Amino acid sequence: MSLNRNEKEAVVTDVSAQVARSQTLALAEYRGLTVEHMNKLRVDARAKGVYLHVLKNSLARRAVAGTPFECAAEAMSGPLIYGFSQDAVAAAKVIADFAKGNDKLIIKAGAYAGKALDANGVKALAAIPSKEVLLAQLLGLMQSPISRLARVVAAIAEKKGGGAEEAPAAAEAEAAPAAA
Predict the structure, then answer these.
(1) How many CB atoms lie within 10 A of CB 29?
(2) Closest CA to 128 of 82, 88, 99, 100
(3) Burial class of 133 by CB neighbour count within 10 A (0 to 12, 13 to 18, 19+)
(4) Do 73 and 64 touch, CB atoms closer than 8 A?
(5) Which of 98, 94, 103, 81 is nearest to 125 (CA)?
(6) Is 95 in contact with 24 (CB distance < 8 Å)?
(7) Measured between alpha carbons, how far is 142 from 33 in angstroms, rounded to an integer?
(8) Tens digits of per-residue pLDDT, 156-177?
(9) Which residues, 6+ apart, have CB-to-CB distance to 81 below 8 Å?
């Protein structure tokens, strides 16, 4: 199905708007994937906030022209699916996770922070934990010294408190034989 000039302009405008909001681009060859697999990939991408679209490569090149993703333009050949995401790792993670379970989806390239990534670069980007996980790890790291200090103080208080309870009992035991 060929697009007329107005439809092509609309596609380029839509993709350019996504590019302007995105941090990451991931490209993968989808040759041989069934419609069922493509739909599952799209559902996964939508759930994680990734804009996933099959585009004509010439239109994709126009959409990324003059943006940090222009460095990936030379990799835009063949039947590709384009994944754009606002989260730095989401697009790479969605495509890499799906590629692990389906050998017909082949990661080709990507771009992040104005730098072109090869297939291994996209996989490395996908291996980075999400922002939420990194924040949770940082918070755990920050809480660790405070919680250790609280446990030590509680142990000292318990030790001193335990010694204080034993002292009156020992005093009563000493007083009882003296009274007899």
Answers:
(1) 18
(2) 88
(3) exposed
(4) yes
(5) 94
(6) no
(7) 45
(8) 988 887 544 554 544 455 555 5
(9) 27, 28, 29, 30, 38, 41, 52, 53, 54, 95, 105
Distance (Å, whole) CA 126 – CA 104: 18
Distance separating alpha carbons of residues 86 and 64, to the nearest angstrom: 15
SS (H, E, C) the chain: CCCCHHHHHHHHHHHHHHHHHCCEEEEEECCCCCHHHHHHHHHHHHHCCEEEEECCHHHHHHHHCCCHHHHHHHHCCCCEEEEEECCCCHHHHHHHHHHHHCCCCEEEEEEECCEEEEHHHHHHHHHCCCHHHHHHHHHHHHHHHHHHHHHHHHHHHHHHHHHHHHHHHHHHHHHHHHHC
pLDDT tens for residues 74-107?
A: 889 989 999 999 988 889 999 999 999 888 999 9
User: Which amino acid is it at 122?
Assistant: V
Using alpha carbons, select from 50, 53, 60 the residue that is nearest to residue 8.
Answer: 60
Q: How many CB atoms lie within 10 A of CB 107?
A: 22
Task: Mention every residue, 6+ apart, whose C-beta is less than 8 A from residue 70.
Answer: 64
